[in-house]
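Appendix B. Raw example, untouched.
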Amino acid sequence: MASKYPWETTTDHEAYEDKLMDKLRGANEIIEEPVDLAQVQKAIHYAKKYHAEQKQSADEPHYTRPLAIAYMTANHCLTTEAIVVAILHDVVANTDLTLAIVAQEFGPIIAEQIDAFNKLSIDYTPASIETVKRMFEERDTDLLVIKLVSNLYDLRTSSSQPMWQRKEAALQSLENYLPLVAYMELREIEEELVALCQNILNPGQDEQNFALSARFGFTALEFLRI
């Protein structure tokens, strides 16, 4: 599968930050409410600071994950809050950075959104379904987008994991994430998600047939029960 992300052709870790900031600067020239680049830069600083000793792989610092997810998020959500949450949710979940510090440095709204994101589950439980329905009713779906691109990124970078673990993640993605992606009409994410899962679960199957079988047995509307 061809790379869709510009940093994947380089080992320069700073490319993650540079490409994200370049993307946001370009977007700011055409959108009505520009992204606060100073806030994003500060979030990147915190990600690097708190993830400093953590590794995603033998030669990859962990902070590259939230920066990649923020880049992917920017394809769909161009607000300061969405980009900062995409960068910092992982930092709060996996380091000593607290929501109190986030509230102090970035404001209570972003802290609340990070807390909500880290508590958000995409599954068939009644509580999850009600949360997702409420987000649609309130037209507040940025956290769902971040959740979907996070899952997609984790699938894309799972090659070093044991195959049983990759298959478990792929099956969970098809069962829980694919219906929501389809419902939100995020076609690019849907196509890549299906292709990644096919490559993990049944690399010999025709891609179109796999896509049909992956969606067999449910519809996106059944997921939300609306």
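End of appendix B.
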